[in-house]
Amino acid sequence: MFFLQSTAPSPTIVLILGTLCMFILVGGIIIFMLLHQRKVEGHNKQIEQMEADHQKILLNASIRLQEEERQRLAADLHDDAGPLLATARLYLNENLINQDKAALLQSILQTRQIIDETIMLVRNISHNLMPPTLKNFGLESAVTDLFQKISGSGVVNASSRFHDYQERMNEERELIVFRVVQELINNILKHSKSSFIHLTQNLQDEKFFIRIHHDGRGILQADFDRLNKSYDGLGLKNISSRMRIMQGQISFERDISQTYFKVTLELPKTDPNAMQKAKKQLS
Amino acid sequence: MNYFEIPNSSRKYFQTAYTTFEYLFFTYILFKNIKNRKIKPYIVILSFLFIVFQAIYVQLGTIIKLDTIPIGIETILIVFYIIVFLSELAKNMETSIFRNYCFWISIGILIYLCGSFFFYILIDSLSREEVLAFGKMTYIVEIIKNVLFGISLIIFSKAGFKKEVHEEIRPAPYLDIT
Predict the structure, then answer these.
(1) For residue A225, how many other CB atoms are within 10 A of its CB?
(2) Which domains are present in chain A?
(3) Which of A60, A129, A273, B77 has minimal Cβ neighbours within 10 Å of its Cβ?
(4) Nearest CB to A11 within list B94, B125, B173
């Protein structure tokens, strides 16, 4: 009854109230956008913080790895080369000239044998630091050599094929790629219990690909990301840092047939760091 | 030429052209900045229907002071496009919305359209004094719109005329595992 009895509101009132409602709507939209923007900024800060934490973990891992490597080197030199050289010194003591000829010859031969052993040991240490095959013949030969050694054990069937590696990368990049491959193969041998490992290399669209397939127990991308963010998995963090240096990507997945585990390394064909340096020099 | 010098019979063509041009201009800016490909065809269809409506309205419709119905439809459609654009912008968590020039344009259009919406659709029912009084309100919202458009121009010129580069999804290279 009220609505029937009441007269229609005047256009002025409708205009004022309607415009007011419209401004409330606009104000609501603007406030929502402002609040949302604050949320976005908070979210971005959180991501930056996470990234910084991740960088810190990687840096710590890298330092720890360096320290471990130094300790290993120190242990090799101290425990193996040290005693050998000390023994050689013993044979070459002052009484050597007072010995009879036969004993003297015996001492010299023993000393020579010890020095040979020391040379061999130092060579092995040096080869571990920079494999000579990699330096002299390149990544393809070094990887093939590594796989032949693994196959030689008779436990794992390891093979590799390089399809597009006519032109070698620079020495520094080859060493980084080789170290990543070495670490991956080491992990596969240690944890996967696989019976075969196959590595393939090829190029596409200015990208350098290395794929490693194995039939054992492997990890997936989620596991890699988790381990990479935790304080465990030093080797994986090291892989991550190395890939970052080369501006490359690494992915862990199952192959299409869901039978094998696949690790893919994807790198720019040309060294982006070298290109940046060259650009800086030119400018 | 003064607007009031235009004869009454020709005014409706002028008003229809103005509303259509304004609609197309605002819609073009928003259309370019809306990335959702599902929405874009609807914008094209709605714009086509609006133009058809305008063509019919200019022939058959009667205009007293202003073309109130096309202005009402134009406002509703553009407010809808702005809400679509802003909701799309809100989903993008990567960059600040204040750095997006279209954010300022859309807020400017929103204030301008919402501030003048009821005035334009009720203009035929208002007296001359009321039209003069409330007409000043449209000047305020228009000034705000122009200021916001100015801000957007500064942001746009600072950002440059960079074209977005869409990375192609590359197929995985061939792989042998024999």
Answers:
(1) 15
(2) 10-129 (no CATH), 132-282 (3.30.565.10)
(3) A129
(4) B125
Break chain A down into helix, strand, coil percent, rounded to 5: 70, 15, 20
Task: State the angle between helix axes of B101-121 and B8-33 in degrees (0 to 180), rounded to the nearest 10.
Answer: 150
Domain ranges of chain B: 3-157
Per-residue pLDDT of chain A (283 residues; tens, 9 = 90+): 444 455 667 878 888 888 899 889 889 988 988 888 888 888 888 888 888 888 888 787 777 777 887 888 888 888 888 888 888 888 877 667 777 888 888 888 888 898 999 998 888 888 777 788 888 888 999 999 889 888 887 788 899 999 888 888 888 888 889 989 998 998 898 888 888 899 999 988 888 999 999 988 888 998 888 888 777 777 888 888 888 888 889 999 998 878 889 999 999 888 776 666 666 665 5
Residue type (1 letter), A177: V
User: A35 to chain B: nearest residue by CA?
Assistant: B90
Contact B90 A22 (CB under 8 A): no
The phi-psi region of residue A262 (left if phi > 0; otherwise alpha if psi is between -120 and 50; otherwise beta) is beta
Q: What is the residue whose two structure tokens read 């959180």?
A: A46
Measured between CB atoms, which of B115, B125, B170 is closest to A19? B115
How is the beta sheet containing A207-214 ordered, strand by strand?
A157-162, A196-204, A207-214, A261-268, A249-254
Identity at A200, one-letter amino acid code: T
Gap from B23 CA to chain A (nearest CA, Å): 19
Question: Model confidence over A19-61: pLDDT tens digits?
Answer: 899 889 889 988 988 888 888 888 888 888 888 888 888 787 7
* Helix A234-245, helix A11-75: angle, nearest 10: 110
